[in-house]
Structures are given as C-alpha cells and as structure tokens.
Design the sequence.
C-alpha cells in the first residue's frame, strides 16, 4: 500500500522560505510614468453601463432634488415596493393580484434598471380603482391620483431610455456603429415627450438629454463613431437629420476610403432578428422600405 509521507510544519516553512515573492505596484506599472513595459490598449466605457448610470443615479438625483416631484416620487416607489414584496412573498397576495389584473406582477431586479421600468409600467397600466382595491385586499397603502399621474408620466418619459438600454445590451447585433444612432434617436424621442407634462416631470426630458450629452460627449464628438454608424448597413446616414452634419460625415467617409490603400476582407452583415425597428423609425422612405422588407422576410 502506498502511503504519502506526512509533511511536518518545519518542512512546509522551509518550502515557503525558498520561494521569493516579488510584489509589483500595478497602478504605477500602468501609469504614464512607467517605462512602457505595461500598457493598456485604447478603450471606451461600456455604453449600456453608462446609460444604466444615467437611469439609476442621474435621473433619481434630479427627481429627489426637485420640490415638485421629491415627495411624490419617494412615496409612490415605497408603495410599489410594498406591492412587489407582498406579491412575491405571499401566496394569498399573489393569487389576489392574478384575480384583479389577470397576470402576475413583474418584480424588478437590482442588476438591470430595465426590469424596474417594466415593473412600474405594468403597475401604471392597471386602472387606479383596481389598483387601490388590490392594495386594500393585501393590506398596503393606496396610491393617490397625484402619485398615479406621476407614475404614468415617469414611465412614458423613460420609455425611450429603457428601449435604448435593451438595444445596447444586445449580444448578437450590437456593434460600435449602433451607439450614435441609438443615442441620437433616444434624445430626439425623449425631447418629443416634453409637452403636456405636469409640474412634477416638466423638466425631466431636458434633464435626461443634458446628462446623456455630458456622459457621452467623447462618443458624440468621435469621428470613429460617426464612421462606424455610417458604414453599418442598417443605419448609413438615415439617422442624421442635420444636413450639415450629414455632409460632414460623407466627407469623412470619402477621406477614409481614399486613405485605405488596400481593401480588407468583407464581413457579411447578418440580418437583425431583434425587434428594434420601431425604435429606429427614421423619417426616410428608404428606411421604411428596409423595415418592411425585414418584416416580410421574417414572416416567410
């Protein structure tokens, strides 16, 4: 029988003494003052992560610092949180929810803001009388008409942002050229919702656009991002409304093509299988034709 020899404490200590461990300051090694042995390639922050920060931190900060919306925002979120907690932890409450709204509630997760918006949107779609009947049955505070109005306006204003987040979080058909068209359409759709809002959310669309412009300033002014979007077949120049900017991108594209001495291998563009066409509804006949062709190909 083979029996391994027992290792004594002194032997193990001797082994550690023989190994020399050298510690390196990673921050200093990667700094600009280093000798160049360790360098990081140029990189950008994740677009979906940045947009998630906008939705979670910047918008909440704006709502909680505005006197017209601070109290209402906190109170309606607290009541919705009680509703989600009751429905997810109590079988009786869950059955009552299904009896009233004929479906289960969406419980938001901490990792994805999209689920939070989807959960609030579902609550806002329930009639206020049914919603308060449900609140009384499961023993939580009812939602007031003011809170219900805020909930509807909040979900409507942030709907484009939630859609943009879904697009930028895609894994199969999200390219670098998708960022600029998504941001431009997002800001345009958000500003289009600023009319008809109550005092609670009247300045929210402008605040969202300002934050996006500040956090994505390097991308919005990037020629590489413009060229990436212009050379993506599903976008080209359809997403650019300003004629001056469109001419500028054309000149950039011509200059870049002339600078290329040899053509690289062509990459076949796979047709998109996502449902993002409704978001990118450009005011252009060619784009509408492209969308109809995609829908027809899916049906066949």
Sequence:
């Amino acid at each position: 029988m083979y029996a391994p020899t027992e290792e004594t404490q002194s032997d193990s200590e001797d082994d550690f003494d023989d190994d020399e461990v050298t510690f390196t300051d990673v921050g200093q090694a990667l700094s600009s003052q280093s000798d160049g042995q360790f360098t990081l390639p140029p990189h950008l922050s994740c677009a979906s992560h940045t947009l998630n920060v906008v939705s979670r931190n910047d918008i909440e900060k704006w709502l909680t610092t505005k006197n017209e919306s601070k109290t209402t925002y906190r109170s309606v979120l607290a009541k919705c949180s009680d509703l989600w907690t009751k429905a997810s932890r109590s079988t009786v409450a869950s059955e009552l929810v299904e009896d009233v709204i004929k479906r289960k509630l969406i419980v938001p997760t901490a990792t994805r803001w999209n689920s939070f918006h989807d959960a609030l949107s579902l609550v806002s779609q329930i009639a206020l009388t049914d919603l308060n009947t449900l609140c009384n049955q499961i023993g939580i505070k009812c939602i007031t008409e003011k809170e219900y109005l805020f909930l509807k306006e909040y979900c409507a204003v942030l709907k484009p942002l939630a859609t943009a987040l879904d697009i930028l979080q895609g894994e199969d058909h999200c390219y670098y050229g998708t960022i600029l068209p998504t941001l431009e359409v997002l800001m345009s759709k958000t500003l289009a919702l600023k009319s008809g809002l109550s005092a609670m959310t009247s300045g929210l669309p402008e605040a969202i656009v300002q934050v996006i412009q500040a956090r994505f300033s390097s991308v919005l002014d990037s020629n590489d991002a413009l060229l990436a979007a212009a050379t993506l077949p599903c976008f080209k120049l359809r997403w650019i409304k300003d004629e001056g900017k469109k001419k500028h991108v054309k000149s950039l594209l011509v200059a870049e093509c002339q600078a290329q001495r040899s053509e690289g291998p062509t990459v076949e563009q796979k047709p998109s299988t996502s449902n993002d066409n409704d978001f990118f509804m450009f005011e252009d006949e060619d784009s509408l034709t492209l969308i109809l062709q995609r829908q027809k190909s899916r049906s066949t």
